[in-house]
């Protein structure tokens, strides 16, 4: 079985340019993602409405990506100190962009693209050059006329960082002279300015007590998971030692963002609450069908969860690592702001994960999945758990080293079932070096879990991306259908109930 951990180049000095630039030490999170246990990469699928002009893309990359320090640096390891660092180098764009010759009339282009991407998850990035590459697949699929697949190592940065770079390198599809608009983000409400007037101080004290209790529980939960607390073995939980190294399958579907906003407005929740609720509903449908006796399935299975056939095991424990952005300002920020030396929203891997329970049950009211998701997320917001989780990681790295940190994080990921993340995207459709993008679909792989669910908004669309181990979840298309069906059931329930739906 292929091992994908990266060994940095060992060198005394690499000076590709006449001007010598100091090396930049690898960040704590970067060291974690370079470890043997958690060697992770990120893949972005960029669907284009037209065939991709490779020369135009190369020219654009040289003028934008290549100027970024992380996309023009080698990972090196000095013999003297053994410290992994980034060292600037000259980039040959032709060694980073791949364009295989394809038959435009191939029989199944969607399957070919899926297979191509799957193969990328089983190949190493070349350490003799910066850790990224772009593959251009000029073949029409069901969602695009061509697909660009960008792969880079997670130590370069997180999805928030890369999305900011992507937007800085793009233009509005409706006006090629303008940069895309960044989504507006709400500022967090201050404890001391909570709008409760006379009762404000009492409300604040009670809130702080609740937060202190929730934080204590979350910290204990983290340590328990790292030591002994395991999820129930279900059909979507693989064996960590084999899952982390296996070839992955990355599949996506595009749904309407307006449907998400309809549910959000009707139930007075956030977009993230709705997405987590849909995920809970989809996993419940899928697992309920997997546990169904043969006599109940009859080969159909699509409506088993709806018909109250409660086949799920009682008291099953299923948890997700829920990704949290710990930057002071939530959402996307301009790239120029992230690259400032003293910026509080700087480029890098400023994310952490918290262990979050996932409801897996057959519920009579589909809206209850969203309500349960909101309750879970609201409780996590009333906790310093994400900050404490990040701080525990830095403390472990500083005093015990990267091996102990990676072992702890590996154990936490192994004892949970999946990872869930959601990144806000551009408010309108964008043009990437002159190519109007039809969708953006990111995901990550390399951690010891058989399922990762990632949501990415894009204009009036939203894309869910499933990264999974096909040996554990071979019928992944059925799982995708369960996500689509769950959204439809929740939307139909909103319309039928008339809750918060405008009659105009």
Description of the structure:
This protein is α+β, with helices and mostly antiparallel strands. 35% of the residues lie in helices and 20% in strands. It has helices at 28-33, 54-63, 109-120, 159-168, 200-227, 240-243, 257-267, 271-290, 294-297, 335-338, 367-381, 385-400, 402-415, 476-497, and strands spanning 9-10, 24-25, 41-48, 73-77, 84-88, 97-98, 132-137, 146-153, 170-172, 249-256, 319-325, 351-357, 418-423, 430-432, 435-445, 451-458, 461-468. It has a seven-stranded mixed β-sheet, sandwiched between helices. A hairpin with an 8-residue loop joins strand 7 and strand 8. The N and C termini lie far apart (59 Å). The relative contact order is 0.17. The model is unreliable at 1-6, 9-19 and 296-306 (pLDDT under 50).
Set out the fold topology.
Elements: E1 9-10, E2 24-25, H1 28-33, E3 41-48, H2 54-63, E4 73-77, E5 84-88, E6 97-98, H3 109-120, E7 132-137, E8 146-153, H4 159-168, E9 170-172, H5 200-227, H6 240-243, E10 249-256, H7 257-267, H8 271-290, H9 294-297, E11 319-325, H10 335-338, E12 351-357, H11 367-381, H12 385-400, H13 402-415, E13 418-423, E14 430-432, E15 435-445, E16 451-458, E17 461-468, H14 476-497
Parallel strand pairs: 1-4, 6-7, 11-13, 13-16
Antiparallel strand pairs: 2-5, 3-8, 3-15, 4-5, 7-8, 9-14, 10-17, 11-12, 14-15, 16-17
């Amino acid at each position: 079985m292929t091992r994908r951990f990266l060994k940095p180049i060992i060198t005394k000095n690499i000076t590709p340019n006449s001007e010598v630039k100091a090396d930049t030490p690898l960040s704590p999170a970067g060291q974690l993602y370079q470890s043997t246990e958690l060697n992770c990469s990120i893949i972005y699928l960029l669907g284009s409405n037209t065939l991709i002009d490779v020369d135009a893309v190369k020219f654009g990359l040289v003028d934008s990506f290549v100027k970024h320090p992380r996309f023009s640096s080698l990972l090196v390891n000095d013999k003297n100190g053994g410290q992994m660092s980034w060292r600037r180098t000259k980039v040959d764009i032709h060694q980073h962009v791949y364009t295989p010759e394809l038959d435009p009339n191939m029989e199944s282009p969607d399957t070919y693209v899926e297979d191509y991407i799957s193969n990328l998850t089983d190949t190493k990035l070349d350490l003799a050059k910066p850790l990224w590459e772009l593959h251009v697949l000029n073949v029409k699929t069901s969602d695009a006329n061509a697909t660009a697949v960008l792969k880079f190592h997670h130590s370069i940065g997180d999805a928030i960082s890369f999305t900011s770079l992507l937007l800085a390198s793009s233009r509005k599809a409706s006006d090629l002279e303008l940069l895309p608009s960044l989504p507006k983000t709400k500022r967090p409400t201050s404890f001391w300015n909570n709008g409760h007037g006379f009762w404000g101080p009492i409300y604040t004290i009670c809130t702080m007590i609740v937060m202190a209790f929730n934080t204590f529980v979350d910290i204990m939960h983290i340590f328990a998971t790292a030591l002994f607390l395991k999820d129930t073995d279900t059909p979507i939980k693989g064996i960590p030692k084999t899952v982390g190294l296996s070839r992955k399958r990355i599949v996506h579907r595009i749904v309407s963002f307006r449907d998400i906003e309809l549910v959000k407005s009707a139930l007075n929740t956030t977009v993230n609450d709705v997405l987590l609720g849909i995920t809970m509903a989809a996993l419940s449908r899928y697992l309920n069908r997997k546990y169904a006796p043969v006599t109940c399935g009859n080969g159909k299975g699509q409506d088993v969860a709806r018909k109250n056939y409660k086949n799920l095991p009682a008291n099953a424990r299923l948890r997700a690592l829920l990704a949290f952005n710990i930057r002071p300002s939530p959402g996307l920020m301009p790239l120029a702001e992230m690259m400032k030396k003293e910026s509080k929203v700087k480029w890098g891997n400023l994310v952490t994960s918290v262990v979050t329970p996932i409801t897996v049950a057959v519920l009579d009211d589909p809206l209850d999945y969203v309500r349960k998701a909101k309750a879970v997320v609201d409780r996590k917001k009333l906790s310093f758990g994400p900050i404490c989780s990040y701080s525990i990681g830095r403390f472990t790295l500083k005093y015990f080293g990267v091996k102990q940190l990676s072992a702890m994080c590996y154990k936490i990921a192994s004892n949970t079932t999946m990872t869930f993340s959601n990144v806000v995207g551009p408010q309108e459709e964008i043009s990437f070096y002159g190519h109007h993008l039809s969708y953006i679909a990111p995901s990550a792989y390399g951690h010891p879990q058989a399922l990762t669910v990632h949501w990415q908004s894009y204009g009036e669309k939203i894309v869910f991306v499933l990264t999974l181990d096909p040996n554990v979840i071979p019928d992944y298309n059925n799982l995708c259908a369960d996500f689509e069906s769950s959204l439809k059931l929740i939307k139909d329930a909103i319309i039928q109930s008339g809750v918060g739906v405008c009659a105009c």
